[in-house]
């Protein structure tokens, strides 16, 4: 089984962190192929960044499917371009936010997502509502830039720990969901420190992708995720014309 993990931002060091998390939980027979988007923002923090991360994401998925991958994981907690990716691809596509909250629902009645920037909190609240978890899940922001998680001289990890502590005290959270793919390497130490389940969306998505492939299931291709209708796309986006991207 070959699972393609796409980091839809353009920071390769974050892709390496994501790949390590994925390989720690993947089955022995699963090959993890982690790629960094070839175009777009260096980090995704809010709606504007998200829009410009989607073309590179779709390009990476099209290339992966031509290379014979069996499933895709989108490694951004905004579930960047998830619906468009499912319409494009013929293999299962998993977003790490949906994977994380659905996994956590099996083990906790009340849980909190702790994400990075305040501007990301409301979009994640909308996703939690979409996934039917609003009554069980709160979203908090530690107000830390995504890339500061990789800077040992920043106080990003201390601020993340502080917010987790507040979630346990004020939200009465029974589990914590890490609301950024760049936090994937912190799961084990945060579990040991706080003594509650800590869920990384990358790991959760890998295991869900493996399950779908094993069961022979993929995205429905009638209705919402039907293959896009062929039509001309003009200007800079002509390469993303339905059919052309997969044939390029």
What is the number of E strands?
8
Distance between the termini: 24 Å
Helix content: 40-55%
Helix count equals 9
Strand content: 5-15%
Helical/strand content category: alpha/beta
Strand order, biggest sheet?
A: 2-1-3-4
Give the arrangement of secondary structure elements:
Elements: E1 2-7, H1 12-25, E2 31-36, H2 47-66, E3 71-74, H3 82-88, E4 93-95, H4 96-104, E5 111-115, H5 118-130, E6 137-141, H6 156-170, E7 175-178, H7 187-194, E8 198-200, H8 201-214, H9 244-247
Parallel strand pairs: 1-2, 1-3, 3-4, 5-6, 5-7, 7-8
Task: Kindly describe this structure.
With 248 residues, this protein is α/β, with parallel strands linked by helices. It has nine helices and eight strands. It has helices at 12-25, 47-66, 82-88, 96-104, 118-130, 156-170, 187-194, 201-214, 244-247; strands at 2-7, 31-36, 71-74, 93-95, 111-115, 137-141, 175-178, 198-200. Strand 5, helix 5 and strand 6 form a beta-alpha-beta unit. Helix 4 crosses helix 8. The longest helix has 20 residues, at 47-66. The radius of gyration is 18 Å and the shape is globular. One of its GO terms (molecular function) is allantoin racemase activity. It holds the Pfam family Asp_Glu_race. InterPro entries: Asp/Glu/hydantoin_racemase, Hydantoin_racemase-like, Iso_Racemase_Enz_sf.
Quickly list its features:
four-stranded parallel β-sheet, EC 5.1.99.3, Asp/Glu/hydantoin_racemase, globular, about 250 residues, about 15% strand, 9 helices, Hydantoin_racemase-like
């Amino acid at each position: 089984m070959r699972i393609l993990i796409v980091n839809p931002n353009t920071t390769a060091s974050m892709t390496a962190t994501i790949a390590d998390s994925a390989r720690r939980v993947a089955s022995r027979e699963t090959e993890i192929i982690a790629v960094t988007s070839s175009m777009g923002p260096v980090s995704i923090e809010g709606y504007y960044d998200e829009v410009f991360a989607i073309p590179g994401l779709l390009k990476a998925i099209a290339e992966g499917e031509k290379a014979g991958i069996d499933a895709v994981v989108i490694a951004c907690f905004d579930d960047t371009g998830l619906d468009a990716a499912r319409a494009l691809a013929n293999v299962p596509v998993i977003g790490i936010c949906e994977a994380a909250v659905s996994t956590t629902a099996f083990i906790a009645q009340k849980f909190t997502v702790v994400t990075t920037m305040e501007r990301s909190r409301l979009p994640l609240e909308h996703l939690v509502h979409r996934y039917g978890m609003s009554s069980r899940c709160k979203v908090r922001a530690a107000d830390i830039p995504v890339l500061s998680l990789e800077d040992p001289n920043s106080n990003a990890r201390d601020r993340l720990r502080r917010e987790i502590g507040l979630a346990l005290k004020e939200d009465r959270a029974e589990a914590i969901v890490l609301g950024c793919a760049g936090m994937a390497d912190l799961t084990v130490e945060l579990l040991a420190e706080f003594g509650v389940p800590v869920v990384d969306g990358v790991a959760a998505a890998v295991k869900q992708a493996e399950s779908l492939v094993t069961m022979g299931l993929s995205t429905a291709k009638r209705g919402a995720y039907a293959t896009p209708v062929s039509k001309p796309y003009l200007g800079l986006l002509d390469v993303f014309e339905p059919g052309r991207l997969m044939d390029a």
